[in-house]
Design goal:
Elements: E1 2-8, H1 17-29, E2 35-39, E3 41-46, E4 55-64, H2 69-83, E5 97-103, H3 136-145, H4 158-165, E6 173-179, H5 188-195
Antiparallel strand pairs: 1-4, 1-5, 2-4, 3-4, 3-6
Helix pairs in contact: 1-2, 3-4
């Protein structure tokens, strides 16, 4: 299973932040051999970076595909560019931010006691994502999209990690906005609405 985090705090070519996340899920599902396994709800969250990045909309999707981690990262960056421009500064506003949280339990860029993210080369892919365990806005939707997931390095579930971050002010969940929309092929209601 591959787990992707989605975030937006600025309207762009695909509409509002919530609409952008919905479109991003459809874009993720386009290539042949890609299967969307589960979606979280879309959450309004507070910014987690330095300064005042504002309010975000965040979600998590679990999927399967046949591409390598590097190819998947390139695909995510292409989708981000199609959604709209990104701020020139690292923690600035963005129309769409897509991050690989976990790629089938692969561990790269970590030492035994922790991640090397402070010294990592910019653009280097670190798996699992080096900050996911400290971000409430990732952990809460991750519990929904992959309830049985366990951190490949820390060996703790998303629920256990969230419990340790639930009072963190930065990146906190403000409210649930609703579910992401994706017509699951095995959902008879989705099929009926598509054929109507």
């Amino acid at each position: 299973m591959i787990i992707i985090a989605l975030g937006s705090n600025r309207s762009g070519a695909w509409g509002t932040p919530a609409a952008t996340l919905n479109r991003a899920v459809l874009e993720l599902a386009k290539p042949p051999g890609t299967t969307i396994l589960a979606l979280s709800g879309a959450y309004e969250t507070s910014g987690a970076g330095p300064g005042r990045p504002g309010v975000f909309v965040n979600a998590v999707v679990s999927l399967e595909c046949h591409c390598s981690p590097a190819a998947l990262l390139r695909r995510l960056k292409m989708i981000e560019r199609r959604a709209g421009p990104r701020s020139a500064w690292r923690w600035g506003p963005r129309v769409l931010d897509l991050d690989i949280l976990d790629y089938r339990g692969l561990v790269t860029g970590w030492r035994e006691k922790g991640c090397l993210h402070d010294t990592a080369i910019r653009g280097q892919l670190i798996l699992p994502h080096p900050l996911l365990h400290a971000r409430p806005f990732v952990l809460q939707p991750l519990i929904e999209a992959a309830p049985d997931w366990r951190h490949p390095v820390l060996r703790r579930t998303a629920r256990e990690l969230w419990f340790g971050q639930r009072y963190e002010r930065r990146g906190r969940i403000i409210k649930l906005l609703g579910g992401l929309c994706y017509p699951m092929l095995d959902d008879p209601l989705a099929l009926a609405s598509k054929s109507a």
